[in-house]
User: Fold this.
Amino acid sequence: MRQDGTGQLIDAYGRVVRDLRISITDRCNFRCSYCMPEEGMKWLDRPELLSFEEIERVVKVLIERYNFESVRLTGGEPTVRAQLPLLVEKLAKLKTPSGKDLDLSLTTNGATLRLLASDLKNAGLSRINISLDTLRQDRFIELTKRDQLHNVISGIHAAVEAGLQPVKINTVVMRGVNDDELVEMVRFAREIGVIARFIEFMPLDGDNSWAPSQVVPATEIVQKVTESFPAKQISHGSDPAKRYVFDDQKGEFGVIASVTIPFCDACDRIRLTADGKIRNCLFAVEEQDIKTILRGNGSDDDLAQVFENSAKSKWAGHSIGNVNFIRPKRSMSQIGG
Assistant:
């Protein structure tokens, strides 16, 4: 890694790192199997979580020293963290060196969003992603182990009503589970003015049962959707989702091909776990601790050194499907989506 005088964090492969994903809790009110095991999770004790002030300090250093432009809050489920709008308000007050607002977003399961959407918007949240893997109640209960579909749908409408833009629905597509709902999900999204995004099933499931046969390739997803709703691909930059605009101009959909067409060569993000570890990849097998620095009177220079070391060790790619792929020890809920 080099910090080349332009205020950028650049890894060994020349990728500029400027997007931070922050897990603010490992807890969740759902039990989606692709994210965590149904039973046996050991939650972090409250003192183990980074405080809002500690998170704010990390973000401030990354903005001021490396021109970070984007921060996404994740979990577990971030809305189970008490006083979430207060954290949003703290981060929304931070400006980039050029004076621009921070692109501040949130990923949530939406179950309690009806109660929070307006407060989050007023606190400064820019946009929101809501996880929804099925529109069928029986299937929803089977996937999440919770009867909360009506609350999630209500939360999506609340996000739209609050003026969060854009609102994206994230659907993890699993062979033989929900791959027959692609067109139905797109139709639902178009009707209410949100963006459907489909994500290939990744090996970060809670019960370690992932297999390549469960992955529905992005090419198949696009084909199924465009047979009913013709669309053309447009440029997507460093966004992991390939974007497709409908021919009738009534919105767009996206596909994240994490497994079959990795976007590692354009990856611009690092991750901060709820317990204060820096990860340079969703599939990283090593982490760098910064909580000790934050709580041990460490300087901003000490934090910066960890960020630079992490960027320096960032892989060229995650190697899913290759014989040398090593599965992370943590599940998705412990890393942050």
